[in-house]
Amino acid sequence: MTDSELAHTTTLVATLGGQPQVVTFALDALLARGEPITDVYLIHLSLANPRTRQALSRLQQEFPNDYYAHTNRRCRLRRAPVGVNGVELTDIRTAADAEVAWQSIRTLIADLKNEGRRLHLCLSGGRRMLALLAMSAAALLCDHQDRIWHMHTPEETLQRVKDGALMHVQPSDGVQLIQTPIVPWGACFPALRALALTSMQAVQEQLQRFAAIDEPQCRQVWERLTSRQRDVLRALAKGMRPDEAATHLNITLNTVNTHKTAILAECRVAWNLPDNAPLDYRFLRERFAGFLERV
């Protein structure tokens, strides 16, 4: 895919609360990495909340005529209010509110993926429930190419930028985007993507069924691994690549690959897979992510 083609498909989706600088910090960081972001979608609750309204107003100053002033690329700001039938939620206080928010966020992500977009989700702003629901929808609808980000802002910097006092920072300010591992269940099990169009409860029930299918094999493998092999499996199941796992565990890539080979050998036995069946670290992520959350 050419740079021109990619530029039409890469989108930042961010949750917004009272801290508008989270959005511009994330956008600046991604643009600095060469990500050709052309649209920024803001997931937010009702503008009846004065802090949310003020945050949106501050952001709009960074996007004159809805386009970001700090890049040569055309990067447009778009709102994605959470609500139903044109009525925006003021907060998420009940299970019914959570269902409405889930439906809104799921529809947004599904529409963007249907358009063939690559997504970056920054979920550090606004209500934590918005972030949790967005991560749930992303697990069903996103692909391996999509990314979820958490933002770390040092306390000293946080006090200086609070409430949009500063909308841009320097590398010395210590703000970091940290990638959050995601298991794209919908990519692994296409039936889940269709299920995502139903209720949140139905999705949760089906995910529990899928997790139960591999429980005996996962436990068999787990019980046969050494302590260090378990460390490697945890890292790979969280979505790390082997080189990232090596850095995380402070061991060499060769050591990670040696442990990975041993783990996959146990998987062939547990799942009764032929020797010529292709297996790699992605198999471990897809099969063990849910299991290791329960171990």
What does this structure look like?
The chain is α/β, with parallel strands linked by helices and 295 residues long. Helices cover 53% and strands 13% of the residues. It contains 14 helices and 8 strands. The protein has helices at 3-6, 21-32, 50-62, 95-114, 128-141, 155-161, 185-188, 190-195, 200-213, 215-224, 227-237, 242-249, 253-270, 281-294; strands spanning 10-15, 39-44, 76-81, 83-84, 87-88, 118-122, 147-152, 176-180. The strands form 2 sheets. Strands 3-2-1-6-7-8 form a 6-stranded mixed β-sheet, sandwiched between helices. Strand 4 (83-84) and strand 5 form a beta hairpin. Helix 4 crosses helix 5 and helix 12 crosses helix 13. The radius of gyration is 21 Å and the shape is globular.
